[in-house]
């Protein structure tokens, strides 16, 4: 019984450290979530990530420079077009949550840096990004 309690305590500490390490990014995601809530969106906690659906803000996802997206992960926050799309892409987006837990505040610069290098090389900055390759490999 003492071993279980010790293991549980350690897992709680590790999770708290991951949340703290990821918190600068999660705060950015929360700002986006607040905007979606103000536009009639909904929020729910799923698997340790806070998911926001767009409500009337759905147009935000379809008017991006590189075309429409179903969802985007920013720290422990996932912003998505609809509840149905969030359910469909959830496993993929949770791979990104785990990537944020590993990279913390370095995730966004690393992701964008890889995308820039790929773009300069004339390659696909999304599909050939190592972060996306991992996410599609683990959750197609």
Provide the residue-averaged pLDDT: 91
Classify the oligomer. single chain
Provide the low-confidence segments as ranges: none
How does the helix and strand content classify structurally? alpha+beta
Strand order of the largest sheet: 1-2-4-3
Strand content: 5-15%
Instruction: Give the CA-based shape.
Output: globular
| Rg over CA atoms | 16 Å
* Helix content percent band: 55-70%
Write down how many β-strands occur, each being a DSSP E stretch of 2 or more residues: 4
Protein described:
61% of the residues lie in helices and 13% in strands. Strands 1-2-4-3 form a four-stranded mixed β-sheet, with helices on both faces. The model has no long low-confidence stretch (mean pLDDT 91). It has one domain (2-138). With 140 residues, it is α+β, with helices and mostly antiparallel strands. 24% of the residues are buried.
Comma- or semicolon-separated keywords:
single chain, 140 residues, alpha+beta, 5 helices
């Amino acid at each position: 019984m003492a071993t279980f309690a010790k293991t549980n305590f350690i897992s709680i500490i590790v999770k708290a450290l991951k949340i703290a390490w990821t918190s600068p990014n999660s705060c950015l995601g929360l700002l986006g979530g607040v905007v979606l809530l103000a536009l009639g969106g909904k929020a729910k906690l799923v698997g340790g990530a806070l998911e926001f659906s767009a409500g009337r803000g759905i147009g935000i996802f379809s008017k991006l420079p590189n075309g429409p997206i179903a969802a985007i992960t920013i720290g422990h926050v996932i912003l998505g077009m609809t509840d149905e799309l969030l359910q469909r892409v959830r496993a993929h987006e949770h791979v990104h949550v785990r990537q944020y837990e590993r990279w913390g505040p370095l995730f966004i610069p690393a992701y964008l840096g890889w995308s820039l290098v790929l773009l300069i090389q004339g390659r696909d900055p999304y599909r050939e990004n190592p972060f996306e390759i991992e996410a599609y490999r683990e959750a197609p």
